[in-house]
Amino acid sequence: MKVGILIISDRGAQGEYEDRSGPVMAEMLGGQTGWQLSHRAIIPDDFEMIVQTLTEWSDAGVNLILTSGGTGFAPRDLTPEATRRVIEREAPGIAEAVRAESLKITRHAMLSRAVAGIRGQTLIINMPGNPKAVRENLDILLPILPHALELLTEAPDTESQHRSI
Fold it and tell me: Which of 74, 75, 130, 152 is the most exposed place for a label (fewest CB within 10 A)?
C-alpha cells in the first residue's frame, strides 16, 4: 500500500513552523506491514493547491492520503472543501467515529470539520494539525485502515459479478 502524508499549513510551507504532525503520522504508519510512505509534502492553505495535490497523488496510485491541518474554523481552513472537490464518494462513518471518540478527550473535537472519502482506489482522510490530536485520531483509525484499504483496492471478482446478474 502506498501512503501519502500531506501537511497543510501556511507557516509550515514557508518554513516558519516545524511540522510535528507529519513525523507522528510517519512513525505510527511505519509499523504497518506492506505500507510504504511514497508521498510527503507541506503545502500552504491554498484551495487549488490542495485539490491539485490530492488529485495528483490519488491518480498516481497512492492508496491512503492523510492530510493534517486546515480542518477548523479559521478563514483559511479549506481542507474539507478541497477534499470534497476531489473525492467521488464520501466515507462519513470515518470522520463521525473519529469525532465521537475525540469528544471523549476534548470538547474541541466538535469544532472539527474533517471529512473522509474515496477517489478511485484512494482513501483520503482529513486530520487535525495538532500532533497530539493526530496521534489520538490514528489510534482510532489504525485498527480499521487495513481492512478499509483491502476492500478499496481489491480487484473485483468479475466471475461472481456475472453470476449474480
Answer: 75
What digits encode the pLDDT tens for the residues 108-140?
Answer: 999 999 999 999 999 999 999 999 999 999 999
Could you tell me which CATH number the domain at 2-153 has? 3.40.980.10
Rounded CA separation 74/70 (Å): 8
Domain boundaries, the chain: 2-153
64-68/116-119 β-pairing:
unpaired
Q: Name the percent of the chain in helix, strand, coil, to the closest 5.
A: 45, 20, 35
pTM above 0.90, yes or no: yes
Alpha-carbon dihedral angle through residues 139, 148, 69, 8, given to the nearest 10 degrees: 130
Q: How far apart are CA 128 and CA 39, in angstroms?
A: 19
Pinpoint the alpha helices (H) of 14-130. Answer: 21-29, 47-59, 79-86, 92-103
